[in-house]
Amino acid sequence: MYKNASYKELLTLVSLDLSTAHIYPVFVFGTLTYLIIVFCNLLVLATIALSKNLHNPMFILLFNLPISDIVGSTAFFPHLLFSIVTQNRGISPSACITQAFMVHFYGTGNLLILTAMAYDRYIAICCPLRYNAIMSPKKVIKCIILIWFINVSMMVTLILLLTRFKLCRTNIVDLYCNNPSLLKLVCEDTRINNFYGMVTIVLLQGGPLLIIIYTYVQILRTCVMTKHTDARKKAFQTCGTHLFVFLILQINTTFTLIAHRIQNVSPYFRRVLGLSILLFPPFLDPIIYGLKTTELKRSIVMLLKRNICSSKL
Prior knowledge:
This protein has about 325 residues and is an all-alpha fold. It has helices at about 20-50, 55-85, 95-125, 130-135, 135-165, 180-185, 190-225, 230-260, 265-290, 295-310; strands at about 10, 90.
């Protein structure tokens, strides 16, 4: 019989199994990774905010992606770095639930933002004459509000369904807290949670995937039919970058959520997939968009040169 852990006892995350010799090198590497992620995403945010030439629907939507990436990285790295130094994998239930909310908030936010960006590219390439009417500033703002409303409401519901239970176990099966791993600490009937989880997976994974498939089929069709080589090249470059970022997050998230529901899946494989969700998109998003999106790359260079020159004066 399991002891009722309620919400007072410390929970224990999976051990990192670091030897004494590896503690500080791993800590330094983790700290540098986190700082690079935060710096690069803040740089993209500042560039879009300060560059008037980037104040258009595409970059206004992109502006939300670094915010989501910073939330995801901050949910994971600070506690991980603290665990590495102290060699203590304990976490309070309230901190664990907060981390789970932030992790799911980040993942859902990224999927919805990338979907909205795909729709923007679809209108720009397939309906260029109607672009300004369809993607007007008011409609873009409404789209952004809708994205965050859906994200917050669905994730709050997810966490509220979880917190109604008392915990009967304390050992979390993952490197960080998330809804599936927290549900495994519950000994009561979790069918409602499982049903809601499946609904969110279908809506938040399947919905964006269908939209992405439709928009990119139409974009590909338009690009093949166009006679303007430069326009075709630019469209492929922009959309290829976007599709690559989306697929990284979509594939990793889908397989991680499915792995939690299949008992025979290796826990190490599941943890690697889960870790990749919080590591690669926040690290790669600003680099990929910064290097592959010409307007953003030029604006970043100009912003950095301007700051360097002003600091020398």
